[in-house]
Specification:
16 helices, globular, mainly alpha, 73% helix, 284 residues
Length: 284
Protein backbone atom coordinates (compact mmCIF):
# COMPACT_ATOMS: atom_id res chain seq x y z
CA UNK A 1 0.00 0.00 0.00
CA UNK A 2 2.73 2.46 0.95
CA UNK A 3 4.50 2.29 -2.40
CA UNK A 4 1.25 2.55 -4.35
CA UNK A 5 0.16 5.64 -2.46
CA UNK A 6 3.57 7.32 -2.54
CA UNK A 7 3.38 7.35 -6.34
CA UNK A 8 0.99 10.28 -5.86
CA UNK A 9 3.86 12.44 -4.61
CA UNK A 10 6.56 11.17 -6.95
CA UNK A 11 5.23 12.05 -10.37
CA UNK A 12 2.91 9.08 -10.88
CA UNK A 13 -0.56 10.09 -9.62
CA UNK A 14 -2.17 7.97 -12.35
CA UNK A 15 -0.51 4.89 -10.85
CA UNK A 16 -1.93 5.72 -7.43
CA UNK A 17 -5.39 6.11 -8.95
CA UNK A 18 -5.09 2.68 -10.55
CA UNK A 19 -3.93 1.02 -7.33
CA UNK A 20 -6.36 2.76 -5.00
CA UNK A 21 -9.49 0.83 -5.97
CA UNK A 22 -7.91 -2.50 -5.02
CA UNK A 23 -6.61 -1.09 -1.72
CA UNK A 24 -10.11 0.21 -0.94
CA UNK A 25 -11.63 -3.16 -1.81
CA UNK A 26 -9.33 -5.02 0.57
CA UNK A 27 -9.78 -2.45 3.35
CA UNK A 28 -13.55 -2.65 3.07
CA UNK A 29 -13.37 -6.45 3.11
CA UNK A 30 -11.61 -6.52 6.47
CA UNK A 31 -13.24 -3.38 7.85
CA UNK A 32 -10.01 -1.39 8.22
CA UNK A 33 -11.40 2.11 8.71
CA UNK A 34 -8.01 3.80 9.13
CA UNK A 35 -6.81 2.56 5.76
CA UNK A 36 -10.11 3.60 4.20
CA UNK A 37 -9.70 7.11 5.59
CA UNK A 38 -6.18 7.37 4.18
CA UNK A 39 -7.51 6.21 0.81
CA UNK A 40 -10.22 8.85 0.97
CA UNK A 41 -7.55 11.44 1.71
CA UNK A 42 -5.64 10.37 -1.37
CA UNK A 43 -8.76 10.86 -3.46
CA UNK A 44 -8.46 14.52 -2.42
CA UNK A 45 -4.82 14.59 -3.50
CA UNK A 46 -5.68 13.01 -6.85
CA UNK A 47 -8.57 15.39 -7.55
CA UNK A 48 -6.23 18.28 -6.70
CA UNK A 49 -3.61 16.89 -9.09
CA UNK A 50 -6.27 16.83 -11.81
CA UNK A 51 -7.16 20.44 -11.10
CA UNK A 52 -10.72 19.55 -10.08
CA UNK A 53 -10.99 21.64 -6.93
CA UNK A 54 -14.74 21.18 -6.60
CA UNK A 55 -14.36 17.40 -6.57
CA UNK A 56 -11.46 17.72 -4.14
CA UNK A 57 -13.68 19.83 -1.89
CA UNK A 58 -16.41 17.15 -1.96
CA UNK A 59 -13.86 14.40 -1.32
CA UNK A 60 -12.40 16.35 1.60
CA UNK A 61 -15.78 16.76 3.25
CA UNK A 62 -16.54 13.07 2.72
CA UNK A 63 -13.19 12.04 4.23
CA UNK A 64 -13.66 14.25 7.27
CA UNK A 65 -17.20 12.98 7.84
CA UNK A 66 -16.00 9.39 7.59
CA UNK A 67 -13.24 10.04 10.10
CA UNK A 68 -15.62 11.76 12.52
CA UNK A 69 -18.18 8.97 12.16
CA UNK A 70 -15.66 6.32 13.12
CA UNK A 71 -13.65 8.37 15.63
CA UNK A 72 -10.38 8.05 13.70
CA UNK A 73 -7.22 9.83 14.73
CA UNK A 74 -6.24 10.59 11.13
CA UNK A 75 -9.29 12.82 10.69
CA UNK A 76 -6.92 15.77 11.23
CA UNK A 77 -5.27 14.92 7.90
CA UNK A 78 -8.59 15.27 6.08
CA UNK A 79 -9.04 18.64 7.76
CA UNK A 80 -5.60 19.79 6.64
CA UNK A 81 -6.46 18.77 3.10
CA UNK A 82 -9.68 20.77 3.44
CA UNK A 83 -7.47 23.73 4.34
CA UNK A 84 -5.24 23.24 1.31
CA UNK A 85 -8.27 22.99 -0.94
CA UNK A 86 -9.72 26.21 0.52
CA UNK A 87 -6.35 27.94 0.01
CA UNK A 88 -6.25 26.91 -3.63
CA UNK A 89 -9.82 28.13 -4.13
CA UNK A 90 -8.82 31.48 -2.63
CA UNK A 91 -10.96 31.08 0.49
CA UNK A 92 -8.27 32.00 3.02
CA UNK A 93 -10.69 32.40 5.91
CA UNK A 94 -11.93 28.84 5.43
CA UNK A 95 -8.37 27.56 5.11
CA UNK A 96 -7.38 29.24 8.36
CA UNK A 97 -10.43 27.83 10.14
CA UNK A 98 -9.48 24.26 9.35
CA UNK A 99 -5.79 24.72 10.09
CA UNK A 100 -6.80 25.94 13.56
CA UNK A 101 -9.73 23.55 14.05
CA UNK A 102 -7.95 21.20 16.42
CA UNK A 103 -4.59 20.72 18.07
CA UNK A 104 -2.39 18.85 15.67
CA UNK A 105 -1.61 15.40 17.12
CA UNK A 106 1.96 14.19 17.40
CA UNK A 107 2.82 12.14 14.33
CA UNK A 108 5.22 11.98 11.41
CA UNK A 109 3.07 14.73 9.86
CA UNK A 110 3.43 17.14 12.78
CA UNK A 111 4.13 20.76 11.92
CA UNK A 112 2.29 20.95 8.62
CA UNK A 113 -0.73 22.90 9.85
CA UNK A 114 1.27 25.65 11.62
CA UNK A 115 3.81 26.01 8.82
CA UNK A 116 1.13 26.09 6.13
CA UNK A 117 -0.78 28.72 8.08
CA UNK A 118 2.37 30.83 8.23
CA UNK A 119 2.83 30.52 4.45
CA UNK A 120 -0.82 31.37 3.86
CA UNK A 121 -0.61 34.51 6.01
CA UNK A 122 2.63 35.52 4.32
CA UNK A 123 1.20 35.15 0.82
CA UNK A 124 -1.92 37.07 1.86
CA UNK A 125 0.14 39.91 3.34
CA UNK A 126 -1.36 39.25 6.76
CA UNK A 127 0.55 40.97 9.57
CA UNK A 128 0.29 37.82 11.69
CA UNK A 129 2.78 36.05 9.41
CA UNK A 130 5.88 37.57 11.01
CA UNK A 131 4.73 36.63 14.50
CA UNK A 132 4.00 33.09 13.32
CA UNK A 133 7.55 32.81 12.01
CA UNK A 134 9.31 34.26 15.05
CA UNK A 135 7.21 32.14 17.43
CA UNK A 136 7.17 29.00 15.29
CA UNK A 137 6.94 25.63 16.95
CA UNK A 138 7.28 23.44 13.88
CA UNK A 139 10.54 21.61 13.36
CA UNK A 140 12.60 21.74 10.19
CA UNK A 141 14.57 18.76 8.86
CA UNK A 142 17.98 17.93 10.23
CA UNK A 143 20.67 17.93 7.54
CA UNK A 144 21.93 14.50 6.55
CA UNK A 145 19.37 12.61 8.63
CA UNK A 146 16.13 10.75 8.05
CA UNK A 147 13.33 13.19 8.70
CA UNK A 148 9.56 12.86 9.05
CA UNK A 149 7.22 14.05 6.32
CA UNK A 150 5.99 16.92 8.44
CA UNK A 151 9.45 18.44 8.72
CA UNK A 152 10.02 18.37 4.96
CA UNK A 153 6.63 19.89 4.19
CA UNK A 154 7.14 22.52 6.89
CA UNK A 155 10.43 23.37 5.17
CA UNK A 156 8.62 23.97 1.88
CA UNK A 157 6.03 26.15 3.59
CA UNK A 158 8.77 28.07 5.42
CA UNK A 159 10.61 28.92 2.20
CA UNK A 160 7.40 30.04 0.48
CA UNK A 161 6.45 32.14 3.49
CA UNK A 162 9.85 33.76 3.92
CA UNK A 163 10.12 34.59 0.23
CA UNK A 164 6.62 36.08 0.30
CA UNK A 165 7.64 38.25 3.27
CA UNK A 166 10.79 39.41 1.47
CA UNK A 167 13.04 37.76 4.05
CA UNK A 168 15.40 36.50 1.39
CA UNK A 169 18.43 35.95 3.61
CA UNK A 170 16.52 33.61 5.89
CA UNK A 171 15.07 31.73 2.90
CA UNK A 172 18.60 31.43 1.48
CA UNK A 173 19.80 29.85 4.73
CA UNK A 174 17.36 27.00 4.11
CA UNK A 175 18.73 26.31 0.65
CA UNK A 176 20.89 23.27 1.60
CA UNK A 177 17.84 21.61 3.11
CA UNK A 178 15.78 22.25 -0.03
CA UNK A 179 18.49 20.52 -2.05
CA UNK A 180 18.17 17.52 0.27
CA UNK A 181 14.41 17.66 -0.17
CA UNK A 182 14.56 17.27 -3.94
CA UNK A 183 17.05 14.41 -3.53
CA UNK A 184 14.42 12.41 -1.63
CA UNK A 185 12.75 11.76 -4.99
CA UNK A 186 9.45 13.35 -4.00
CA UNK A 187 8.11 15.90 -6.46
CA UNK A 188 5.27 17.48 -4.54
CA UNK A 189 3.09 17.68 -1.49
CA UNK A 190 0.13 19.89 -2.36
CA UNK A 191 0.34 22.78 -2.79
CA UNK A 192 4.16 22.79 -2.92
CA UNK A 193 6.23 21.63 -5.90
CA UNK A 194 9.56 20.84 -4.26
CA UNK A 195 11.69 21.89 -7.23
CA UNK A 196 9.92 25.25 -7.16
CA UNK A 197 10.79 25.55 -3.47
CA UNK A 198 14.44 24.74 -4.21
CA UNK A 199 14.40 27.30 -7.03
CA UNK A 200 13.08 29.98 -4.70
CA UNK A 201 15.76 29.26 -2.11
CA UNK A 202 18.51 29.27 -4.74
CA UNK A 203 17.26 32.59 -6.12
CA UNK A 204 17.22 34.08 -2.63
CA UNK A 205 20.85 32.95 -2.32
CA UNK A 206 21.65 34.70 -5.62
CA UNK A 207 22.54 31.49 -7.47
CA UNK A 208 20.62 32.28 -10.65
CA UNK A 209 21.79 29.32 -12.80
CA UNK A 210 20.77 26.79 -10.13
CA UNK A 211 17.51 28.62 -9.50
CA UNK A 212 16.64 28.58 -13.20
CA UNK A 213 17.43 24.89 -13.49
CA UNK A 214 15.16 24.07 -10.55
CA UNK A 215 12.31 26.18 -11.92
CA UNK A 216 12.57 24.65 -15.40
CA UNK A 217 12.61 21.18 -13.86
CA UNK A 218 9.59 22.06 -11.74
CA UNK A 219 7.61 23.11 -14.80
CA UNK A 220 8.61 19.90 -16.61
CA UNK A 221 7.65 17.73 -13.64
CA UNK A 222 4.33 19.44 -13.01
CA UNK A 223 3.41 19.19 -16.69
CA UNK A 224 4.54 15.57 -16.99
CA UNK A 225 2.74 14.05 -14.01
CA UNK A 226 0.57 16.17 -14.32
CA UNK A 227 -0.13 18.22 -11.19
CA UNK A 228 -2.46 20.84 -12.63
CA UNK A 229 -2.74 23.15 -9.63
CA UNK A 230 1.05 23.31 -9.37
CA UNK A 231 1.60 24.01 -13.09
CA UNK A 232 0.74 27.72 -12.90
CA UNK A 233 2.53 28.10 -9.56
CA UNK A 234 5.73 26.74 -11.09
CA UNK A 235 5.43 29.27 -13.91
CA UNK A 236 4.59 32.18 -11.63
CA UNK A 237 7.56 31.59 -9.32
CA UNK A 238 9.92 31.15 -12.28
CA UNK A 239 8.65 34.45 -13.67
CA UNK A 240 9.33 36.11 -10.32
CA UNK A 241 12.88 34.76 -10.44
CA UNK A 242 13.38 36.18 -13.92
CA UNK A 243 12.08 39.58 -12.85
CA UNK A 244 14.44 39.58 -9.86
CA UNK A 245 17.42 38.61 -12.02
CA UNK A 246 16.45 41.17 -14.69
CA UNK A 247 18.92 40.00 -17.34
CA UNK A 248 18.30 40.95 -20.98
CA UNK A 249 15.12 39.26 -22.21
CA UNK A 250 14.01 38.19 -18.71
CA UNK A 251 11.07 40.60 -18.54
CA UNK A 252 9.65 39.39 -21.86
CA UNK A 253 10.04 35.75 -20.87
CA UNK A 254 8.47 36.47 -17.49
CA UNK A 255 5.45 38.07 -19.14
CA UNK A 256 4.95 35.00 -21.31
CA UNK A 257 5.12 32.73 -18.26
CA UNK A 258 2.72 34.92 -16.30
CA UNK A 259 0.30 34.91 -19.22
CA UNK A 260 0.34 31.10 -19.20
CA UNK A 261 -0.02 30.98 -15.43
CA UNK A 262 -2.94 33.40 -15.43
CA UNK A 263 -4.86 31.34 -18.00
CA UNK A 264 -4.26 28.20 -15.94
CA UNK A 265 -5.30 29.81 -12.65
CA UNK A 266 -8.51 31.10 -14.20
CA UNK A 267 -9.28 27.75 -15.82
CA UNK A 268 -8.81 25.81 -12.58
CA UNK A 269 -10.58 28.35 -10.38
CA UNK A 270 -7.78 29.87 -8.27
CA UNK A 271 -8.86 33.53 -7.97
CA UNK A 272 -6.31 34.70 -5.41
CA UNK A 273 -3.40 33.45 -7.47
CA UNK A 274 -4.96 34.78 -10.67
CA UNK A 275 -5.39 38.23 -9.14
CA UNK A 276 -1.80 38.25 -7.88
CA UNK A 277 -0.48 37.22 -11.28
CA UNK A 278 -2.57 39.83 -13.05
CA UNK A 279 -1.24 42.50 -10.69
CA UNK A 280 2.35 41.47 -11.40
CA UNK A 281 1.70 41.69 -15.14
CA UNK A 282 0.22 45.17 -14.80
CA UNK A 283 3.43 46.37 -13.16
CA UNK A 284 5.65 45.19 -16.02
Amino acid sequence: MRDSIMHAYCGRPTQTAQDLSEIVRLAEKIGHHDVLLICKCFLIVLATAQGDLRQAQRDAEAARNFGEQHGLGWTFLAEQLKSINAYLRGDFREAERWYCHREEPLSHMSGIAEANLFALWAEAGDERALGAWTQRRWKLPRAGELNPNGAWIALAASVIGLASLGRRDEAAELRPLTEELVRTGAWIYPPYAFRTVAGIAAACAGDWPAAEEHHLTAIHQMDTAPYRTAQPMAREWYARMLLDRNAPGDATKARDLLTEALAMYESIGMPFHASRTRLTMEKL
